[in-house]
Automatic annotation (TrEMBL):
Annotated GO CC locations: plasma membrane
Cell compartment(s), UniProt: Cell membrane
Transmembrane segments: 59-83, 104-129, 149-169, 176-201, 221-244
SUPFAM superfamilies in the record: MetI-like
Family per similarity comment: Belongs to the binding-protein-dependent transport system permease family.
Name of the protein this chain belongs to: Dipeptide transport system permease protein DppC
Recorded superkingdom: Bacteria
GO BP: transmembrane transport
InterPro entries named among the record's database cross-references: BP-dependent_transpt_permease, MetI-like, MetI-like_sf
Family matches, as Pfam families: BPD_transp_1
């Protein structure tokens, strides 16, 4: 299923040749049929084409925000884990404040400063998810930095940068990959929710959250407009979460 979504995101032309923005006012609000597999919307646009072309922006926001969260959380966590005690204390207190708020609320606070837009939503979700990664990486880095093989490396006079790159980072990022995979599904949901609220993509972008927002006013008469983007969001989140849980279980088995 993830391969199918990746193909839709990277090569949408393989799955549909229709223009996702093309309007046809003679074919508005048509139910799914042979001519339009998923029906049409209020402007006569083909919903199958819009669903396929909406995969890229939807996944880009979800996965991109995960990358931003991991990067920002890694910097904070490493500084706290191997830095002076005062730096550790300050950064972890700030992290605790961030963890006290739901990710979507933190994202909304960031958007209140940055303003709406696809890139700003990506950054906002990434910043909102960073405290969780920072806490995890700090714990990993602190444990690894206190291990015997790192102490031996320090005793042999190996440069701190080499120790960080060779010993701390590779061993600290195993659990982070699992957490990032699981969190990617959550970020996709948050991204769709923010677009639904009007903070993300703008018409005529076919992004899934925006498609849900456009279809909410036609649920009684054209249920298919909101149904299929909702199914797509559900399927990709389930697939990503199952992948993350599988990686988590295999990691626990190796330990």
């Amino acid at each position: 299923m993830l391969v199918m979504f990746l193909v839709a995101a990277l090569w949408p032309a393989l799955l549909t040749a229709a223009d996702s923005a093309a309007t046809d006012y003679t074919a508005t609000l048509q139910a799914p049929s042979a001519a339009h597999l998923l029906g049409t919307d209020q402007l006569g646009r083909d919903l199958y084409s819009r669903l396929i072309h909406g995969t890229r922006p939807s996944l880009l926001i979800g996965l991109g925000s995960t990358a931003v969260g991991v990067l920002l959380g890694s910097v904070i966590g490493l500084l706290a884990g191997i830095g002076p005690r005062i730096i550790d204390t300050i950064l972890m207190r700030l992290t605790d404040i961030g963890l006290a708020f739901p990710e979507i609320l933190l994202a909304l606070l960031v958007l209140a400063v940055l303003g709406p837009g696809t890139v700003n939503v990506l950054l906002a979700i990434g910043i909102g998810s960073a405290p969780g990664y920072a806490r995890l990486i700090r714990a990993q880095a602190h444990t690894i930095h206190a291990s015997n093989y790192v102490r031996s490396a320090v005793g042999f006079g190996i440069a701190p940068v080499v120790i960080l790159a060779r010993h701390v980072l590779p061993n600290a990022f195993g659990p982070v990959v699992v957490l990032a995979t699981i969190s990617a599904g959550t970020n996709i949901i948050i991204a769709a929710g923010l677009s639904f609220l009007g903070f993300g993509a703008r018409p005529p972008d076919p992004e899934w959250g925006l498609a849900l927002a456009e279809g909410r006013n036609f649920v009684q008469h054209a249920w298919w407009i909101a149904l299929f983007p909702g199914i797509a969001i559900t399927l990709v989140v389930i697939a990503v979460t199952v992948l993350g849980k599988t990686l988590e279980a295999r990691g626990a088995g190796r330990r």
